[in-house]
Amino acid sequence: MSELTGNRIRTTAGKLGLPHLAETINEFTRRADEAKMGYLDFLDLVLSEELAVRDDRRFRQGLRLSRLPHHKTLDEYDFSFQPDLDPRKVKDLATLSFVEAKANAALLGPPGVGKTHIAVALAVAACRAGYSVYFTSLDDMVRNLKAAEAAGRLANKLGTYLRPGVLVVDEVGYEILERGEANLVFQVISKRYEKGSIILTSNKTFSEWGQVFGDEVLATAILDRLLHHCDVISINGPSYRLKNRLKAIERDTDVA
Ligand code: ADP
Ligand code: MG
């Protein structure tokens, strides 16, 4: 390939928004020469690599915007530590058919059983599959919506929680909400109903939500929208956080 042609391809690829081709044209042609590639195989290689680079960039950008607290995956989740949890239920969710169907998933259980871990893992998978993702604790969401409401910008702020294909609402039930706060949550849940998925985690059973939202009628209205299309996974087992802590304490007392 002449230098002139190489330069022209680089410029054209740049203009077409194909940065990977622009950067690696020499490498591509070397590989094509070495493998004695035909025209179609060469074109296939160039296009599929460009697409892979683009998908990867979009995935990383999506993760940055998602505000996920970490990027743990299901491979890092030790199912043997929660024998009562059926791994198939979680792996079914990881196929993301509930996201495709704009349905919800709820992970319930006491602290430390991995509710947030699994919610994040599902969100990372959704992000990789091309869905937009946003992570928030319930309390942060309520605080932000309240502040926006006070500043007359509620509609604008609601968009943060309505736009993403997948909204992760973590830690429902840690703080008791006032009526106005519960009403803001209702707005998010009802506006997302059948429009976008919610993955939520809670340390409370649904029957306790009346107390969490300070109002049985409002709690029922929220649950009605949320649970109409929802996979519920209850994890009733030991805390993984305590497992490591207890081991450390046992070790220390052994030494003493
Ligand atoms: P929860 O949200 O239920 O309180 P987390 O998801 O925050 O619990 O889990 C607490 C910590 O323990 C996290 O670092 C998480 O990655 C880890 N963890 C929990 N359960 C498991 C498990 N079964 N296998 C591996 N790590 C786990
Ligand atoms: Mg958690």
In a nutshell, what does this entry contain?
By secondary structure, the chain is an alpha/beta fold. Helices cover 59% and strands 11% of the residues.
Considering the chains and any ligands shown, give keywords for the structure.
single chain, 256 residues, alpha/beta, Rossmann fold, 2 domains, binds magnesium ion
What's the CATH class of the largest domain, please? Alpha Beta
Based on helices, strands and strand pairing, what is the structural class? Answer: alpha/beta
Which fold name is given in CATH as the topology of the largest domain? Rossmann fold
Order of helices and strands: HHHHHEHEHHEHEHHEH
Lateral arrangement of strands in the main beta sheet: 2-3-4-1-5
The Cα radius of gyration reads 24 Å
Tell me the count of domains.
2
Q: Name the CATH homologous superfamily of the largest domain.
A: P-loop containing nucleotide triphosphate hydrolases
Total number of helices: 12
Give structural notes.
By secondary structure, this protein is an alpha/beta fold. The protein contains twelve helices and five strands. The protein folds into two domains: 3-66; 74-242, 3-Layer(aba) Sandwich (Rossmann fold). The chain has helices spanning 3-15, 19-34, 39-66, 87-93, 97-100, 115-128, 138-150, 154-162, 179-192, 209-212, 216-228, 240-255; strands spanning 104-108, 133-137, 166-172, 197-202, 230-234. It has a five-stranded parallel sheet, sandwiched between helices. Strand 3, helix 9 and strand 4 form a beta-alpha-beta unit. The protein is globular. The structure holds adenosine-5'-diphosphate and magnesium ion. Adenosine-5'-diphosphate is lined by residues 72, 77-78, 81-82, 111-117, 201, 240-241.
